[in-house]
Hints:
By secondary structure, the chain is α/β, with parallel strands linked by helices. It contains 15 helices and 13 strands.
Amino acid sequence: MKVLMNAGPWLPVPPTGYGGIENIVATLIPPLRERGVHVVLASVGGTSIEADELLGVYGEGQFEHLQKPYNQVMGIAHAHQARLVAELLRRDDIDLVHDHLEVVGPAVLSAFGGPPVLHTLHWDLRKHAEFYRSFPASIAVNGVSDSQLRRAPAALRAASLGSVHLATPLAGADVRVPRGEHLVVMGRVCALKGQHVAARICRALGLPLVLAGPVSGLDGPAELDAVTADPGHPLNGHPDVRYHAEQVAPLLDGDLIRWVGAVGGEDRDRLYASARAALFPIQWDEPGGTAVVEALALGVPPIGLRRGVLPEIIDHGRTGLLADTEEELAEMVLRAGEIDPEECRREARTRFSPAVMADRYLELYERAAARAPRRGARRERRPGRRHGPAAQRDPAGPVASPAAGA
């Protein structure tokens, strides 16, 4: 099977820092290739994951432009998607497109008579309610949790083939460091993640808390200070920047409650693995829960509010603890020692490994192909026409190459 994996134009695969969707794509590609899938990756320059082919139009990720006015950013996703469609028009050996580009991906592909499409829903479906209420019937979708699909509009549920829980690489699962007393909240600092709730709880309990993650793409205090000091900066006044300034910063003291900015690689794994517990005081029905899975893989008990995907991932009392209120959450923090770290690791290996996710997606690929056979006639192969990596060196695409990461 040849699959065109569309990661979008925003960040390389894998990203160097924060990048949830791109990290998932980076986690999925290796086990798919191990299972014989030929992966054509649509991404941007800087992508280092090894794929069979790489295509795109941008020499670097375009994420920084997302905060600009719409009339300056509106063409980015469409230019990327136009390159993908041009590739599909140029060749006829792609069996399926696995699309991860929000709205623009399915909107463009639904009008194109190409191979079957499976579109993964990574986000809050309320953001584009009108689009999802009239979702194109020609596109198959999957959710990242059952709870996400239960809240989806009827048209989207009709197009769904089910849900696939997100996985995480297990490379960091072997990290063994002494368990500390601190708690950690790992992820983008924003009101939906509820860092202010975690800070309030830990201040009241006298327990150290480390908040790790970017604020509106700003990786650390110095970058954030520069933005808040410049009234003309496009991020000055951004909701996440305001949230940090108004609800998180007043609770920081640099000792008991700290924000350390974005943390990656081994530093991130050690910070996580040494924590007493990972807190998830989420203020919305989170669909994916990648950070929860990462905590399990590192043997860190996850403790969170019973919302969104968390009850699907956390087995209360065995692999973590769930609460219905902030007061209950504080009580659960004091019970973190009841959770066996090795049980958390076993759960990650059994349910949330890259291999498990890849096998589930292979099932959905087959179902998507059967549900929506190729629309439009397959172009006749011309004598002498070459297919495969050696034929895909397209000088028109700045990031086109026969093998990404080679």
